[in-house]
Amino acid sequence: MSDTPGSGAIGRQRWAIAEGYIPGWSNGPEPQMSSHETCCILNASDRVASVRISVYFEGRDPAGPYKLTVEPRRTRHLRFNELRDPETIPPDVPYASVIESDVPIVVQHTRLDSRQAENALMTTIAFAAD
Amino acid sequence: MSDTPGSGAIGRQRWAIAEGYIPGWSNGPEPQMSSHETCCILNASDRVASVRISVYFEGRDPAGPYKLTVEPRRTRHLRFNELRDPETIPPDVPYASVIESDVPIVVQHTRLDSRQAENALMTTIAFAAD
Amino acid sequence: MSDTPGSGAIGRQRWAIAEGYIPGWSNGPEPQMSSHETCCILNASDRVASVRISVYFEGRDPAGPYKLTVEPRRTRHLRFNELRDPETIPPDVPYASVIESDVPIVVQHTRLDSRQAENALMTTIAFAAD
Amino acid sequence: MSDTPGSGAIGRQRWAIAEGYIPGWSNGPEPQMSSHETCCILNASDRVASVRISVYFEGRDPAGPYKLTVEPRRTRHLRFNELRDPETIPPDVPYASVIESDVPIVVQHTRLDSRQAENALMTTIAFAAD
């Protein structure tokens, strides 16, 4: 086996997360224990990934696209509550998201909810389009 | 990249969730902290999605179909304990579900369990049929 | 859309769960709050599913096969700690499992851990073999 | 059905986990309640699996490859915080990982977070490359 980590691109170019919800409040020390919803992106390829995220709601048109880049052979753990341009995502509102990239990436969805005294966690690999 | 969010339909037309259980009691402020089991549906297409949900049990014939629609480019986070027609799903009973749609959708399953003083969370993308 | 719930078989005939661990102790009222690890099986087909489960360990040969059936159009939420024949699965030991069926099924893995005062939950759809 | 557990290899040879984070502190009895992030590997085949893990970060080049073996018909639940060669993974830093094997394996990702008084759990089957 090689002594160089990784072996190039892995993943798909289009992903979806049907669950989304930014808890409205938090408990515990900041920033680790603040309630957050994270979109973890892995770009194991040798090229910069140009990523656009569209956010869908129950009662209004979609927001975005939010545009970002992930450097080659890097991961980026993006908190939805830090998205600013073109608009912030309001807390306490259900949403969903579609993540598109020009190179293959892997997407995983995680929530830390610290609204009550002890935190709760959930995660899933996102849905990878064919 | 385009400045319009999303780029059309994503997903599959038939999904399954093998786990299902509505906790029998709750702690904390309503409605955010009430125990619930959610079926999150994303319809990123440009057409209305007609969805039917069948609910399977351990000791009786399936319930449903529960019929609903999801508007184009919208998400819907449906709580199983809010299903009424043709019948409610009893708490504290194991079930499973199959979700069918006439357009591609993405389905994710989430449970918030607040039976004890602090809440617990779990989520997974549902199984997408071929 | 039809008024009969479900529309037949969904899933695959061979599944795997790489994580497995029966917590060694519990808190809270029995049986809902006892720590457990569940293999949720959905048989949406019109035929009885004959299922066999093999359990893999870190330091010994596999256990099983554990044999069971799931009736047509039924789910079964099986607790690993209730398996008895040919042997019980010890608590506090890492394991993994392969679930095989003669008809298509859907498998989901869930753990409720109540070793500390408040319970924790996790779930994932199992890996579906091609 | 056969009376021998298992029926050979299942899974894929290349997997990815986009989420990774070793919590910086713990509560509760060691080692069960120490915060940890686990990569559960199932090798249901009849051959030794030679596995290499590459770890990706947000702001530096990848670490690894970490090399290990999983014996035939065995599982191995590997804690990322126990990786030592060629370097340890620092706590409180986001990472992602790619897991490669010369025989088919199944990979599942689990985190136990006990930074607050009660533990939280999350799990998902990793992304299986085509």
What is the chain-wise order of helices and strands of chain A?
Answer: EEEEEEEE
Query: Judging from the principal axes of the Cα atoms, what is the shape of chain A?
Result: globular
How many beta-strand elements of chain A? 8
State the name of the first-level CATH class of chain A: Mainly Beta
The second-level CATH architecture of chain A is Sandwich
Protein name (chains A, B, C, D): Sensory rhodopsin transducer
Please summarize what this structure is.
Chain A has strands at residues 12-17, 36-43, 49-57, 63-70, 74-79, 95-113, 120-125, 127-128. Chain A is mostly beta strands and 130 residues long.
Question: Could you give the topology of this structure?
Answer:
The structure is a homotetramer of 130-residue chains.
Chain A: E1 12-17, E2 36-43, E3 49-57, E4 63-70, E5 74-79, E6 95-113, E7 120-125, E8 127-128
Antiparallel strand pairs in A: 1-6, 1-8, 2-5, 2-6, 3-4, 3-6, 6-7
Explain the overall architecture.
- Four copies of one chain form a homotetramer.
- The first copy, chain A, has 130 residues and is an all-beta fold.
- The first copy, chain A, has a single domain (12-128), classed as Sandwich (Hypothetical Protein Tm1070, Chain: A).
- Chain A has strands spanning 12-17, 36-43, 49-57, 63-70, 74-79, 95-113, 120-125, 127-128.
- Chain A starts with 11 loop residues before the first strand and ends with a strand.
- The model of chain A has no long low-confidence stretch (mean pLDDT 88).
- The A-B interface holds A 14, 16-21, 23-24, 50, 52, 54-59, 61-65, 67, 92, 94-96, 98, 100, 109, 111, 113, 115-118, 120-127, 129 and B 1-7, 10-11, 28, 32-33, 38, 40-42, 44, 73-77, 106-108, 110, 114, 117-125, 128.
- Chains A, B, C, D: InterPro entries: ASRT, TM1070-like_sf.
